[in-house]
Structures are given as C-alpha cells and as structure tokens.
Write a structure and sequence with these properties.
By secondary structure, the protein is mainly β. It contains seven helices and 16 strands. It has a single domain, classed as Carbohydrate-selective porin OprB (Porin), CATH 2.40.160.180. 13% of the residues lie in helices and 46% in strands. The longest helix has 17 residues.
Length: 455
C-alpha cells in the first residue's frame, strides 16, 4: 500500500495547475463539439442494450464524495450565497482484462488497457436564496462521455464491470424542478422533469464506493427493463413524504422507454410503450458523520412496468412469443455500521436483494453485498477500502433454451484514496465468474484505476 501511495503522489507531482487548466479547456472543447447520437426506432442498436449499462450515482454525489474544488475563488462563494451552485467533475478510468472473458487464444481481441472518461457539469439554483420563492430548487446536468466499451468489446460480462461504460456522446442528462412543503408538521416534496430514478431509488450508501455497475442499480432491474438511469434519464414525476425524521416514502412514475431520448432533448411519452412505477419505503437512524451512533438504513421497494413483455420460452400458434401484460419486482437494501470508530471511521456492510418473474426476464434474482471500511489507515481518515460480491441468477426458462450457466458472479476489491481535497484515485480488481453465464468463456480478471477531479 505504501508503494501504491508513493506512485500516486509521484503522479500528482506532474499535475501542475497549468497542465490542469489546459486539460479542462480541451475537455470543454470536446464536450461542445461532439455531436449528439440519437437512437430511434428501427436502428440496429436496441434500447435494452443502451440501458444495460448502469452506474452508481456516486460519480458526483456529495452524500458520498465530499470533494473540495480545485478552482476556489471568491465569485464562486458569492454565487452560492445567491443560490447558484456549479460543479464540474472529470472522471477517467483505465481498464484491463488480464485473462478470461472474450480474451481467448487466437481470438484477436485487443485486451490492452482501455480508456474511458466522463465530464459532468451540474447546476443547481436555490429559488429562496436567489430571491424568488421558498422551497424550490432547479437542477440541471449535462455530460460528455468518450472512450472504450470494455465489457462489450473485451470482457463479455452481463452486469458490466465499469459503471461509467456508455455510448459516446454529449447529453442533457437531467433537468428537473423540486418543491418542498410543510404538510401538517411533516416534510413533503414534489419533483418533475427529466430525472435519474437511481439518484433516489434502489441504491446503497456503502455500495456507492464500488466501480462495478450492479452496486448502483440492482441488476434484476437494470438488465430486464428500460429504466431511467445512466446513461439515459427519463421524464418523471416523484413524490416524497417524510412523516418523521427516520421514515420516508417515495413514489415515481416515469417514461417507460427512455431510450427514445438518448440525446436528452427528444421527449416522447407514449402509452403504447408503457410507464414505469417505482415505490420505496425507508427507515434510517443514527448520524452518518458519527459512526458511534451506529447509523443504518433499510429500504423496501417494489416496481411495476405497464408495457408488454415477451415470454422467454413459450410461443403461440404462430410461433411468436407469448406476451405478458406488465413486469414487476421487489427489492430490499440495507446499510449498517458494524464496528464504529472515531468520526466517520468504521466498518460497515451493505446488502442488496431483488427478484422478478423468471418467465419474462433474463436475470430473475440478484444478490449483492459487501463491506466498507473507512479510515483503515490511521493517518488517512477519508480513504475507504471495500470488498463486495454481485450475483446475478439466470432465469431457469432461459437456461433451458440457451444452455447457459446458472449465474454470473462478480467479486470486487477496491481502495479509494482522497489524495488531495479535489482529487481521488481509486484502483480496483474484479474477478468475474461465468461472464454472461456463458460456459464457453473463462472467468475474467479485470483491473480498473479511476481518477476523479472536482474542478
């Protein structure tokens, strides 16, 4: 670990402010000159293939990554005092498939280091601080993604090893308005607009650490239905009610086919494509900033998609797949501090469980979980070590037809180092057992190193 830290700091010594200024200018140029790639009905790439690439909301979420800014100046503070907050986050990943997966002898698959990156710009406007009305917030988020597709091209896994893997392009990702009310002494908020559902539903606080996609959105959801999540958010309406400080209930209805809005500007609501309804009941306790309070969060959720879904095995008299009216599922997520330390230090654990019908879904059951140790090195309170497992079970009906294995399971070990207040570096290694539940593919060994800068 000490050698790794020395390598990190040697790298930092080369990153002068002049270099970073040039770096951000080049990325902005790239951001605005890249054309938007729209996906419409009839193109060869399906909506499902686009939506099967999901990431943890932790890419810029302040609940987990408390970055300071690289560029700190007085005007930024003045704007924030007047309600306007701006953030620019650059994330770059270097991924290598060392063995297994699509890397076969004589296959011709290039398994050298792959590079991908995301540049995210977010803007928030607090209407009360801006001098307008109380309780309102506008939020906007655009991003540019470029680089390789390692899971699709080199690894061949089902759950997607890197939670930033996506199609190249620049998108208006989120654009919504939220208003909060006091309802008879309880908190009520309404949100409407283009909204990433996974930014509030079906996520684990401790799971945000990991680079693998399934520790963001449960795979039995993201793999089976079109859902509002990276890289495509959808129009939606969300209501959240908090009757006490410890209990909340949320519900959201959103566009059932967000893939038609790949660029973020092509809104289309069509009842023939269905709607997605999500519900979540949560209970939390303790103080996240003080591990000795033994903080914990427990969530139970359920969802229903109103579109029609083909049966995996059964066909009608014309040999067309039988159709099911709707799709649905249940999930449970838990985060719990186990061994507290000073301040935020301590050992916590998380659990993800979800199930769906096996007659219309490729993955019918998902089980994930792991441990999360913050401050394991005494002198580095903000560093986090994590070990987690994601297990996706394949539908019995699909196994019978395609002769596939029963599961794909990924194990990830990662360490996130907050090297500077505005820079985090996170190496990790994953072992992917039965990639895509394909018996012809060997287990894959994948390494990822992530660099994240908050400008």
């Amino acid at each position: 670990m000490e050698r790794l830290c020395l390598l990190f700091f040697a790298f930092l010594a080369l990153m002068t402010k002049r270099f970073l200024c040039l770096f951000i200018i080049l990325n902005f140029i790239f951001l605005f000159v890249c054309s938007c790639r729209s996906v419409i009905a009839g193109e060869s790439e399906s909506v499902y293939s686009l939506l099967n690439k999901v990431h943890s909301i932790g890419m810029y979420d302040p609940r987990f990554y408390e970055h300071e800014h690289f560029f700190e100046f007085k005007r930024r503070n003045i704007l924030e005092d007047r309600g306007l907050s701006l953030d620019l986050i650059y994330t770059s990943d270097f991924i290598t498939n060392h063995s297994g997966g699509l890397k076969k002898a004589g296959s011709g698959i290039d398994t050298s280091i792959s590079y991908l990156s995301n540049t995210d710009m977010t803007i928030d406007l607090d209407m009360e601080k801006a001098g307008f009305w109380k309780g309102g917030i506008f939020h906007g988020h655009i991003f540019n993604h470029h680089g390789a597709n390692p899971s699709e091209d080199y690894i061949g896994d089902l759950q997607v090893a890197d939670n930033f893997e996506s199609e190249k392009g620049t998108k208006l990702y989120e654009f919504w308005y939220e208003h909060s009310f006091n309802l008879s002494g309880t908190d009520l908020s309404l949100l409407i607009g283009q909204h990433d559902l996974n930014s509030e539903f079906n996520f684990s606080e401790y799971g945000l650490l990991f680079l693998h996609s399934s520790f963001g959105f449960n795979n039995e959801i993201s793999n089976n239905i079109p859902v509002s999540n990276f890289p495509i958010a959808a129009l939606g309406f969300r209501i959240k009610w908090e009757p006490t400080e410890n209990i909340y209930f949320m519900a959201e209805i959103s566009d059932g086919d967000p893939g038609k809005n790949d660029c973020g500007k092509h809104w289309k609501l069509d009842s023939k494509e269905g709607f997605l309804n999500f519900f979540e009941l949560g209970y939390h306790f303790g103080d996240q900033e003080e591990s000795r309070t033994m903080p914990g969060t427990y969530k139970f959720g359920w969802w229903y998609h109103t579109d029609e879904f083909d049966d995996i095995r059964d066909v009608d008299e014309s040999d067309d797949p039988l159709e099911h009216n709707g799709n649905y599922g249940l999930y449970f997520i838990a985060d719990q501090m186990l061994i507290p330390g000073e301040g935020k230090r301590g050992l916590g654990a998380f659990l993800q469980v979800g199930g769906v019908p096996d007659d219309r879904n490729e993955v019918d059951f998902y089980l994930g979980g792991g441990i999360h140790y913050q401050g394991i090195i005494p002198s580095r309170e903000d560093d986090i070590l994590g070990l987690a497992v994601a297990h996706a079970s394949i539908s019995d009906d699909l196994k019978d037809i395609e002769k596939r294995d029963s599961h794909e399971t990924a194990v990830e070990l990662t360490y996130r180092s907050q090297v500077l207040p505005w820079l985090a570096i996170q190496p990790g290694v994953q072992t992917i057992f039965n990639p895509s539940a394909d018996s012809t593919l060997d287990n894959a060994i994948v390494s990822i190193i992530r660099f994240q800068i908050n400008f």
